[in-house]
Amino acid sequence: MSRAFLSPSPTADIISTVEFNHTGELLATGDKGGRVVIFQREPESKNAPHSQGEYDVYSTFQSHEPEFDYLKSLEIEEKINKIKWLPQQNAAHSLLSTNDKTIKLWKITERDKRPEGYNLKDEEGKLKDLSTVTSLQVPVLKPMDLMVEVSPRRVFANGHTYHINSISVNSDCETYMSADDLRINLWHLAITDRSFSILSCHSPA
């Protein structure tokens, strides 16, 4: 089988969707190459009080890869169709991103401290010989350069026959809807292997 569909597209950097989070502090963009770039609003400074509208790159990650449906002999593009932020419930941020067929849930966290002074591990993280441990110490947190970590939490697939064109998060923060041209599905964020069809239209003859 030809692997031409895996070749980078010259239009991969073209933005296909944008979405602010609920506070406007973060702006997520998706492109035709399957990447999500998150921008963070710069805080207003005393020297430049009107510069609050400027955004800098906060994090970049690959959300979707090109796939091939062997049963239908159909290429599935990696292009991000929609992004939706979930309401923030703790220090972490969460968002949904989708291409034509697969919806993914991502968690974005910050880390600016690292623990040091483990009792059973050395500085490289390897376990110490227990016979050499003669005293106990309390680990401490030391400052470090800010690190933004993005981790996949859920993958919601096989819910649509046609291309997904919209997703919407419910106010209960537990469910969301996804839609294609003929179908609307209701998903629970904790359940990936099934969804409920709340609207289904017949395909035109």
Automatic annotation (TrEMBL):
A molecular-function term among this protein's GO annotations? protein phosphatase regulator activity
Q: Which InterPro entries match?
A: PP2A_PR55, PP2A_PR55_CS, WD40/YVTN_repeat-like_dom_sf, WD40_repeat_dom_sf, WD40_rpt
- The protein's superkingdom reads Eukaryota
UniProt-listed SMART domains: WD40 (SM00320)
For this UniProt entry, what's an example GO CC term?
protein phosphatase type 2A complex
| Alphabetized UniProt keyword annotations | Repeat, WD repeat
Q: Which family does it belong to?
A: Belongs to the phosphatase 2A regulatory subunit B family.
Q: What is the protein's name according to its record? A: Serine/threonine-protein phosphatase 2A 55 kDa regulatory subunit B
Q: Which organism is it from?
A: Camelus dromedarius (Dromedary)
